Amino acid sequence: MMNNYKLWFKISVIACAFLIALIAGAFVILAVGGNVFETYWIIISMPFRNFRSLCEVFTRMIPLTIIALGICVSSRCGINNIGAEGQMYMGVVASCAVALHCEALPKFVAVPLCIIAGALAGAAYGFIPGFLKAKLEVSELLSTVMLNYAATQFFLFCIRVPLLDPNEKTGTPMSSRLPESAVLSKFFRGASLHQGIILALILVAVIYVLLFKTTWGYKMRAAGASERAANYGGIDVPFYLIIAMCISGACSGMAGAVELMGVQGRAMSGITSGYGFSGIVVALFAALHPIAVIPASFCFGILLYSQVNLQILTSVPPNLVETVQGIIILIIVSVQMVINNPYALEKFRKRFFTKKTGLTEV
Amino acid sequence: MELMINTLTLTARFTVALLIASMGEMFNQKSGIFNLGCEGIMSMGAFLGMLVPFLYGGAGTVPGYINAAGLIAGALCGALMGLLFGVVVISFRAPQGIAGIGLQMFGVGLAGTFFRSYIGGTQSITGINAKAIPVLSEIPVLGPILFTHNPVVYIAYLMVPVAWYIIFKTPWGLKIRAAGTYPKAADSLGINVNKIRYESLAVGGAMAGFAGAFLTLCQAKMFNAGIISGRGFIAVALVYFGQWHPVKIFLGALLFTFAQSLQTQIQIFVPQFGYYEFLTMLPYILVIAVLAFNRKSNKFGPAALGKPFNREQRV
Fold this sequence. Notes:
The complex is a heterodimer of chains A (362) and B (315). Helix content of chain A is 73%, strand content 0%. Chain A has 362 residues and is mostly helical.
């Protein structure tokens, strides 16, 4: 009974936050003239309608999981990587460039090669803000955002000039279709789920081991928890900042490669579809724990999949999903502070639990 | 020559959105709040700047006071969003970087949602048009650069000395600087630090919203979900670049808009140049380069920037 109030405190705070998020979303839906309950019902029920739509959710989980894992590493090391979108674009460019030259190679060589190319490109692009932060004290929040815009432009250039499909007649710049040897095959006929999910699950294990079972992971977490203490303990903080950003970038690059090879099949504008930013929300939602990323990305897979259904079935614009993600970030960061606030906990205990303990004393 | 005059004319006009937004951000940061959600606030401001005249008169001409109402609506909405951000980072003391990203996604998403449902597709408005000042605009070279703009541009330039005066010469400005430099000391002298921070967030948000509304009303005359395209973030970076001083921020805004206008003008005057994506990249790269080679300027920043203030905490 004595310790129960901590648990109840957490539960009630989270429940309140969930309610606030729902209400805020409801206001937005009302403002655009939608039916609140219908909209929520579509978001929640449509993925479970049949096996194919469940596979759609899983397909969206793949890049979300991979990116969120990268964000977990960088955030645990104390550097906020908002550049996942740009790193993803770089991964797409690199793996596309490699894949288009892989026609002759067998599948088991070509696929890893393309994914590694994407990872390397992402890591190189993640290295830049990491280096700038570690050596030149440039705020990573600003540099990664700027690099996002630069990467988008670079990507548009690549699909317009070097990677342009010579047979494309519609005038939309896009790359050629990837050769069959570089495509991640689907598990089931007619469902979009592809082999990338194996990579995502392996990466969950790898990142978990890296963060919690290796010295590198320990040092990264130490650097993130308290930079000065880590420095005092002999940890080369700038080095681990850069490594964390490289790992984070590599994850985003891989997500780009997987999305290209498993879903789109060719590089075209808008291929990242906002996964870079959603990945941040997923990582926060999972409280930066690699294992928790799986259920978190499932939730957000449902949310992202609802964009399709909302467009078909209701008058609510799909941009609603981005708004909801913003609300969720604002609420998560607030909730974390409330939960960790001992004064609020004490108030809660006095308000709801002192009466009972008083009775037992009598 | 024509390219240069055109570029400078555009620079003088287009600096305004960036300038006002970074002035607002300067107020936030002077009081110790790092508001990365500027982009989202600008998006909502831009949307309202479009919505008000559009609802009144569609694509046709509307009376001046409706356009002014658009600007004011943008500013009001910006102030509200600033206060919302204040609830998260001041009252709940959440980490400001991530919360800012949340505000950005919220603002951009909300503007996109409302845009789809209230306006629909690509629509344009007449907006506030540029008016040449009769005699002055005929001066060669300087005339077109300085005196062919719409009235809002001149008001915006007036903001630089006004902001300087408020920050450095009024009691309220002193309180803001105190709250951002050493909130503990400010608190011990009876300044309500969190109230000052809320106020500065409202003012900064209003300016960001106004900047967004300016962007649609005077510059683009239309709206789409990506219209801000990083200007909010550049505005934040400009505050660093300008070392938290209004005049230096003004110069920085001029420099970046110059890079941006030059890029558009090169696309017009030298159409055979086939690598325009790299030109579009230029301002963003410039921001990073400036931040990287200007790291001493971090020392000019408010000492308590990004640190939530907690009265009950010791040390």
